[in-house]
Every structure is written in C-alpha cells, then in structure tokens.
Specification:
227 residues, three-stranded antiparallel beta sheet, 10 strands, elongated
Length: 227
C-alpha cells in the first residue's frame, strides 16, 4: 500500500461529527430563531384580532347611528315611554297602500317602538294579518294609548310583530329626552361598546326635524280639529 493511499485512508477514519459544545450552540441558536418566529406570529395574530374587533365595533356604531338617526330625525312625535321603551309616531304616510296618509292621525302602520334592553336596542313594528287589514287601516291611536302601552298591546293582538336589532351588543344603555312625551324634541341614546377589553361610551343625539307639536291641544292630545 502506498503512502498516498495510507494518508487518504487515515483522513477518512479520523473524520468526526459535532462536538457537544457545537450541538448546544446550534440548539441555542435554533431556539432563539424559533422564539422570534413565534413572537412575530403571535403579534401578527393579535394585531389581526384587534383590527377585526375594532372593525366590528365601528360597523355596529355606524349602523346604530344611521338607523336611529334616520328614524327619529323624520319622526312626528315621541308619543310615550311605556315600560321604558319609546313609542314613536314615525311618519304620517299611512300604510303600504297609502291609506291614512297625511291625515294627521297616528295610524297603526305609522308607529315604531324602540325597545331598550340592558344589552341591545330593537326597533319593533307591527303589520296586519289577512284578517286584520281593515283594523290597521282604520285605527288611530290617542297619545294616551301610546303612553300607557295599550296601543302596542292591541297591535300585538291584531298584527304580526317585526323586530330589527339596531344595536346587538352593548352595555349601560340609557335614553334621555329633553321633555316629557309628547313634547320631547330631542333624544339622546348613550351606551358602551367593548373593544380590546376596554369599554368606550358613545352617544347618539337626534332632534326631531319633523316635530308635529302644532297638532297637540292643551291636554297633550292630537286635536280633533286638524286646524
């Protein structure tokens, strides 16, 4: 065997793997890299969750503001607050066929109830059944019936309840009026919305631009004489 062949053989047999120190260093570096990657992934996920939560809250706030403002800004009267809810004479346009439109009377098809719960706000209307269409078209409510809750009770008997949730997840909901119904011309709705574990208070303030106080007599009822 030649010297060259012996040297090559010795080189092959004297090769070795990582030492313990080298292995520990490699594991340490790998751990640092994996930890950094995990931290970045967690931060990205948290940022995405925060963005989604903020987007949800903003959407709910815009929707509630739009629907409540649209309803009340064009309302004729805030007629009463039975059981803590708000009875609203929303318009004087009559029913879908125009029956009762412009008659200066609170017809059943023109009333909206804003239900204020501890954690949400609903808008409730009633529509006639096949058997109660005439009742809905001919019935006009007094302010007293709306104030006491009897109007809604009768509508629940003769009609179908329709509910629209305008504020689905809130806390500390409160509504205040600038005067007792039916003389109120401004309503303020305050509530808390939670985002990222923090409660933030919001307010919606609306003035009745179509206020029909001129129809009220000295007793606070709609005058029998339109003039």
């Amino acid at each position: 065997m030649t010297d060259a062949m012996i040297t090559k053989h010795e080189r092959r047999t004297t090769k070795h793997g990582f030492t313990l120190v080298e292995l520990l260093v490699a594991l340490s570096v790998t751990s640092i890299i994996l930890g950094a990657v995990a931290a970045l992934a967690f931060a990205a996920t948290s940022a995405n969750d925060t963005t989604n939560e903020a987007a949800r809250v903003n959407t709910e706030l815009r929707t509630a503001t739009l629907r409540i403002t649209e309803l009340l800004a064009h309302a004729k009267l805030i007629a009463g607050t039975p059981s803590g809810d708000i009875a609203i004479w929303a318009h004087d346009k009559g029913d879908a066929a125009g029956y009762g439109a412009g008659n200066n009377r609170v017809n059943a098809a023109e009333v909206v109830f804003m239900e204020v719960h501890s954690n949400k706000i609903n808008l409730v209307t009633y529509t006639p059944t096949a058997w109660t269409l005439d009742w809905f078209r001919t019935t006009a409510f007094s302010i007293w019936l709306l104030k006491t809750g009897w109007a809604e009770y009768l509508m629940s008997i003769y009609g179908n309840r329709n509910e629209l949730v305008v504020l689905p997840r809130a806390a500390n909901i409160a509504c205040s009026l600038d005067a007792l119904p039916p003389y109120a011309r401004r309503i303020e709705v305050s509530f808390d919305l939670q985002a990222d574990g923090v409660d933030r208070t919001h307010k919606i303030t609306v003035y009745l631009r179509s206020y029909a106080g001129h129809l009220l007599d000295a007793a606070g009822e709609i005058a029998a004489d339109d003039d």
